[in-house]
Amino acid sequence: MRWAQGGIRALKPVTDTFSGFGLAVLAAAVAAWVAGFVLSWLEVLIAAVLLTVTLLAATAFVLGRFRYDVVLDLAQHRVTVGDRAVGRLDVRNASGRALLPSVMELPVGTGTAAFPVPRLRSGATHEEIFTIPTRRRSVISVGPVKSVRADPLGLLRREMTWTQAEELFVHPRVKNLAGSSTGFLKDLEGRVTTDISNSDVSFHALRDYVPGDDRRHIHWKTTARTGQLMVRQFEETRRSHLAVLLSTRADDYAHDDEFELAVSVCGSLGLQAIKEDRGVTVLVNAGFVRGDNRTRLLDDLSRLELKPSRGRLVELARVAGATVTDASVIAFVVGSRVTPADLRAASARLPAGVQVMAVQCVPGASLSRHTIGDLSVMTLGRLGDLPLALRKMSDG
């Protein structure tokens, strides 16, 4: 077993250089030599000679040492859908002699771009400028850059990797909601709780002073009247906290355009909450999306994909009800296949007293609003209608 593994390792440089077609030609050449000598078959020997000469000629195309300095430079690592993404590939001959022509291959997403590199003198450089399509929200892996030498018949192929892969984030389109969400997220000063605090804005009661209390909270009038130090207590308040529950279940959407609109709505709501310094939590079927920073939120949204899932919207709401306990506003963002019964069941899993809405994304539909019990549901046909939808929600 060890000798077999050792043989495989020894032959790896050969098998890595030979293409599938090249290995077939090599096997045919060996078989032709054996058959020609054993059977004394002249025609087969001639075929063996021709195949051998072809392989030797192919070898001449891939001989030589590669010594390149290669720079892969993306002008921007984060763009929005539809924006122009530009990159630069710079190849320099780092050897002391001229290098024969080669090809640089650059994997971009699921495709590969090939850039011919001419014969380079020592120290000479070659530059290529390329653009990357950004028609769809995604995270595109760019690179690693590989230099390739191959013969015209494709028998042999020699590769060397020169750079690391880089990621290009294609962020979803978002809509500025300044002035639109204020009415909907109207608990600007927080929501009062029953938790008692020694320092807040909502006065609760007086109590006896104990060593360590902040003297700024001593109520001097009561202290003078009773002759005993008294301090103020407060009810803790919560800052506005938005929770967005985005369904990533494939069965909840009729087609991909619905999901793209839903991701854009989610991003718009989250960014507005971040901009207004409110807390935001984004929850999808697979878990939480980072909402502590604009860039991290958009990066994570760029990675989202529709996936088959048994977990329905009610399960997402159950997780939110158990984990996002400080939410003051909760927004469902779903596709057209989510039924009113699903929305009613999901909203029933959320804590009482929390403001809840749902945005159902149906590209091309007219903006409309309806209610399912206590739940307000907006049907949204395009991202540009989102500010108006929020104003209608706050007016309702």
From TrEMBL:
Pfam families: DUF58 (PF01882)
Record's keyword annotation contains Acetylation: no
InterPro entries, alphabetized: DUF58
UniProt entry keywords in alphabetical sequence: Membrane, Transmembrane, Transmembrane helix
Source species, domain of life: Bacteria
Stretches assigned to the DUF58 domain: 206-360
Transmembrane feature ranges: 21-39, 45-64
Protein name (database record): DUF58 domain-containing protein
